[in-house]
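Entry 12.
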Amino acid sequence: MRVKYRIVLFFLTVFFFGDIAISLSDKASPGTYSAEGDISFALNLNNNDSETKETEHIDELFESFLKKYKLAGASVAVSQHGKIVYARGFGYANTEMQEEVQPGHLFRIASVSKLITAVAIMKLADTGELRLEDHVFGENGILNDSCYLGFSDERYKDITVHHLLNHTSGLAGTTGDPVFNAHRLVSKYQLNRAAGIQDVITDEMGKKLRSTPGVRYRYSNFGYWFFG
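Predicted 3D structure (tokens):
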């Protein structure tokens, strides 16, 4: 149902804005909504700029979406022909202070960073710096420093660049996503500091893979850490 709802939301948004884009772009003052030039232009926008009768229905649609999935806040922007025709924040950027989301608020790009990372890896492959078939771990792997050789599962040696790219490496936390569980390692190893990336890597590589590399798809944030 969640996927279906998002698909419906997407197409409703596309078709709805196709009808109102021309009328709203006429209301935009020159330079105010242009994405060219100073990238801080969004800081000059506020929700009132997109409060029109034509957008009331789409406002309600996004508000119901946040309520349905219990999201604290979101920011939506639509452009046409290089101009922003709609920019609106929903919910709160700071729930404690009741600070409403505005178009200029910044959000983490989260797993969109994986796309950037994957493109970088593919460019390295294009220039011959590495091959997708190259093994990542082991004495002859790309990552063969001592800190990457402490794996307890010999199948680590079978993991290739391609496996990490398409989430078939077998890496996946058995007690949740390792990337977001670093705080658990502080008490586990009695650390007198915050746990870092290397602590997580050492801890996870001491565990067995959840599946043989190349056999099963398991989405893995942890796998993309190694590309970094």
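Annotation: Helices lie at 2-27, 56-68, 112-126, 161-165, 182-188, 197-205, 221-225. Residues 1-38 have pLDDT under 50 and may be disordered.
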